[in-house]
Amino acid sequence: MQLTARPFPKDNRVRQADIVSHKLLGDTLEVIQREQQARDQRTLEQRRLTQRERTQLQSAMGDAWGETAEAATP
To answer: CA of 21: how far to CAs of 12, 32, 55, in Å?
Structure first.
């Protein structure tokens, strides 16, 4: 299998549409992050979990929220 090579334009400029799409993406990712945090919190409160599952979820929540696993423990 051969890959074709194309010259890359070095004078390529950033378009306004690219900037706007990234700003919208940032807002969308924040909404998704808040929904995931709420889902994980509900899972911890409502679902029966094994100790291993609970520890893994709390660790993941701490990593995602910028906390340590100990701080995420209720």
So the answer is: 18, 16, 37
Alpha carbons 21 and 8: distance in angstroms, whole number: 22
pTM for the full predicted model:
0.52
Contacts of 40 (CB under 8 A, 6+ apart): 57, 60, 61
Question: With 90 as the cut, is the pLDDT of residue 20 above it?
Answer: no
Instruction: Tell me the domain boundaries of the chain.
Output: 18-72
Q: How many CB atoms lie within 10 A of CB 61?
A: 20
pLDDT of residue 68 exceeding 50: no
Encoded tokens for 19: 């900037």
How far is Cα 33 from Cα 64, in angstroms, rounded to an integer?
Answer: 9
Question: DSSP secondary-structure letter at 32?
Answer: H
